[in-house]
Amino acid sequence: MFMLNERNKKILCAVVQSYINFPDPVGSRSVTKKYSFGLSPATIRNIMADLEDMGFLTQPHTSAGRVPTDLGYRFYVDSLVAEGDYYSNIDILQGIYKRLESLKNDMDTLLSETTKDLSRLSHYLGIAISPSPDITTLKRINLLKYKADRLAVVLFTDEGLIKNKIISIDSEISQKDLNRIAGYLNSEFSGYTFDEIRLKIIKEMSREKSRCDSLISKAMRICQDALYFPYSALFVSGLSEVLELPDFADLKKIRELSRAIEDKHTIVKLLDKLSESAGVQVIIGSENTLEEMKKLSVIVSHCKEGERSIGVVGIIGPTRMNYAKAIYIVDNTSKLITKMLAGK
User: Fold this and answer.
1) I need a surface site. Which of 5, 169, 188, 249 has the fewest CB within 10 A?
2) Has this prediction a pTM greater than 0.85?
3) 234-237 and 125-129 as β-strands: parallel, antiparallel, unpaired?
4) pLDDT tens digits for 138-193?
5) Strand ranges, E, within the chain
């Protein structure tokens, strides 16, 4: 990493901020007019050339101004975070708390509505994922015969999640049997995480081989199928907002964005990994592991209940993003949800 002196840092941040404000290559005269650095356009031009040689800026074509690279954005974002008080607008979040507070007992709906607010406030994609299924704690399970060989499962969790699932069952099982099975599962497994329940089921089923037709064995198999969720739920809002941005003016960029959104499992894996870190996480362009997202930036923060992560909220947008505003919105939204859940 190149070391920058204070003068070069200020010029780099000025170029990045100018390009964020207006998506045109930034020239030295433009920087001279907008910022009072006390330097001539020629001096600023030389500094910008040095910054290009170091990889912080690039020139789209000869005689054009310069635009930030991912490295330039990274330096800019790190500078914002180091300053701390980089954006302040309390009014922007007014009204969200009261609306979301009424949804705190239904985490899926809460996260879904949160993505709409994130998108509306930022004009980028609002994203959220529910807690990892493995750490989700069962509160209650309801079983309802849906068809002769189909069963509707409704799972209620301590985190406020309500999960629904249709699974196959033995057509001979009656609703009366299902009620008995649900009662048994609730008495045995309420208060355990899905991962703990799966381990207990494996032990129980190994002891039940001699009673494979018993109600308990059927209960074990139903519970095993009911708790299988390979991925956290992903919520995305605001595609129409993003497509209005000049950064997505051509079809190729729109297709790249669409592919990134469609590859939900990969995004969930990325967000799950980011949720392991404290505070706001910013992934810029080429730092993304997913190929379709290498021209996008991701800003996320996890919401907590006590010491436990109960979801991730964030924003996806172009690398030419208003990072100060986006970080502020994501950070304060996650803190708002954390505070809200603490008051359950």
Assistant:
1) 5
2) no
3) antiparallel
4) 899 999 988 888 889 988 887 677 778 888 887 778 889 899 989 989 998 998 88
5) 57-58, 67-68, 125-129, 138-147, 150-157, 162-168, 234-237, 281-284, 296-305, 308-318
